[in-house]
């Protein structure tokens, strides 16, 4: 067994954790590799104040407290003062660090504008006192609170965001689900190109070193030949199998009366209508057709193809403005105000011949096959042969996404919809959102697909407002 690499003699990093880091990721104590951690007493007090209730924050606060209790079980006061050794990480070349709990009062005079009775200012005073007493270490505050990091910088304290849950360094690196072919692609690959028909579908087999960056079920298109839109069915090193996408532009190939209006929408319908794809993620700005396409595909497969028993819709209940408070009624009635986008799109899909009575009958039929559920009651459930839509997924954490997607049983399809530019929940960013997380983690799986929708298809007013405002 190779020897563990001992920390060098350069100044150590001494991380002072804010409460919100523990409530965001209860297992964060194990994420700092060989570095030491300090937990101010005010952090434990705040955890205690936030542990009650059934929210995700309360659950995380209780979990963080249990983890800390496991660390100090059997430890004496002098052991706690010296720092408790954290468990050795698996497959790591570093020794683990220590976690220090505040066992004595640390005083430091803050400026008069920062009274010391506020929790954030208490953490700042603690960090300044540690800077003074621990000259051998580089003291760094880790917090999800931007204002605390700003105040720390003003006082000369190093402060960082908690970045272990960051999926990507830059949102521009996020997988888009499509690749444009080079101008000379066909000439460069013509010698080893194969094509054939199978059950009315056209397939291609291409070989080349530039195929290694392709992903399963990715859209491959040629700008010069707009008719060429293919899906990567298999990719194995330098060899790939392509299947021509189905054409949903024409009215006789519509999905529940809906046709694709652009390349990305056509590919989205290919993903949504493919029974071999169990997980689909659609990103896009408002008005790109995410919800309408998803609902149309769901209704076609539930009512026409009978591939799934029913549609289940859920979303994060994060308000855009002030919360309207408690709502009366059943679970589904409470969720109705949050499902305005769903109802708007159902009106479009239920519009047809038959007059007012025909539309009313269609609406009743659709509502009987579409169930609206709250995220709060998803834990422990299993969905069998369901078409599950997770709307506004950008407001979910990676753990919430995992809890939801793992509810899928045999024959279930999960579709995640969202706009990364419209995150309304605290402590989540474009690079730490659960939607970003699943797009990045599922891109290599053979039974998943993703596409980023670009063109807005609402109205000229909406398009102009999105561009100019």
TrEMBL record:
Domain of life per record: Bacteria
Gene3D superfamilies listed in its UniProt record: 5'-nuclease, P-loop containing nucleotide triphosphate hydrolases
Keyword list, A-Z: ATP-binding, Nucleotide-binding
A Pfam family annotated for this UniProt entry: PhoH
Molecular functions per Gene Ontology: ATP binding
InterPro entries, per database record: P-loop_NTPase, PhoH, PhoH2-like, PIN_dom
Domain PIN residues, every copy: 13-150
Keyword ATP-binding: yes
GO CC field: cytosol
Family: Belongs to the PhoH family.
PANTHER family in UniProt: PIN DOMAIN-CONTAINING PROTEIN (PTHR30473:SF2), PROTEIN PHOH (PTHR30473)
The name this protein goes by in its record: Phosphate starvation-inducible protein PhoH
Lineage start: Bacteria, Pseudomonadati, Pseudomonadota, Gammaproteobacteria, Candidatus Tenderiales
């Amino acid at each position: 067994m190779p020897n563990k690499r001992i920390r060098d003699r350069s100044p150590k990093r001494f991380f002072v954790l804010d409460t919100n880091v523990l409530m965001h990721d209860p297992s964060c104590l194990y994420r700092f590799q060989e570095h030491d951690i300090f937990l101010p007493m005010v952090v434990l007090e705040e955890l205690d104040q936030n542990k009650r209730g059934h929210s995700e924050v309360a659950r995380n606060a209780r979990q963080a407290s249990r983890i800390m209790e496991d660390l100090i079980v059997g430890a004496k006061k002098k052991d706690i003062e010296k720092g408790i050794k954290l468990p050795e990480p698996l497959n790591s070349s570093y020794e683990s660090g220590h976690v220090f709990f505040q066992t004595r009062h640390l005083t430091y005079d803050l400026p008069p504008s920062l009274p010391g009775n506020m929790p954030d200012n208490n953490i700042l005073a603690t960090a300044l006192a540690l800077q003074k007493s621990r000259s051998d270490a580089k003291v760094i505050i880790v917090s999800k609170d931007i204002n605390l990091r700003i105040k720390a910088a003003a006082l000369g304290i190093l402060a960082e965001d908690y970045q272990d849950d960051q999926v990507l360094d830059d949102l521009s690196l996020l997988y888009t689900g499509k690749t444009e072919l080079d101008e000379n692609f066909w000439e460069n690959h013509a010698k080893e190109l194969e094509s054939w028909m199978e059950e009315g579908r056209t397939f291609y087999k291409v070989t080349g070193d530039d195929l290694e960056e392709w992903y399963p079920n990715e859209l491959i298109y040629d700008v010069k030949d707009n008719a060429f839109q293919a899906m990567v069915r298999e990719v194995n090193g330098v060899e790939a199998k392509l299947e021509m996408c189905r054409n949903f532009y024409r009215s006789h190939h519509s999905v529940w009366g809906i046709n694709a209006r652009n390349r990305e929408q056509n590919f989205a319908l290919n993903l949504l209508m493919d029974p071999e794809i169990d997980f689909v993620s659609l990103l896009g700005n408002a008005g790109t057709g995410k919800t309408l396409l998803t609902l149309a595909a769901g209704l076609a497969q539930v009512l026409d193809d009978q591939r799934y028993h029913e549609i289940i819709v859920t979303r994060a209940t994060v308000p855009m403005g002030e919360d309207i408070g408690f709502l009366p009624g059943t679970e589904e009635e409470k969720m109705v105000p949050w499902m305005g986008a769903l109802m708007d799109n159902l009106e479009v899909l239920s519009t047809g011949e038959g007059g007012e009575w025909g539309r009313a009958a269609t609406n009743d039929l659709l509502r009987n096959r579409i169930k609206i559920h709250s995220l709060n009651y998803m834990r422990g459930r299993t969905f069998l042969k369901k078409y599950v839509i997770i709307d506004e997924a950008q407001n979910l954490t990676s753990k919430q996404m995992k809890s939801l997607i793992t509810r899928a049983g045999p024959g279930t399809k999960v579709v995640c919809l969202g706009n990364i530019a419209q995150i309304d929940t605290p402590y989540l960013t474009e690079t730490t959102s659960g939607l970003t997380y699943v797009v990045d983690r599922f891109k290599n799986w053979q039974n998943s697909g993703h596409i980023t929708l670009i063109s807005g298809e609402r109205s000229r007013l909406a398009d102009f407002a999105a561009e100019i405002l």
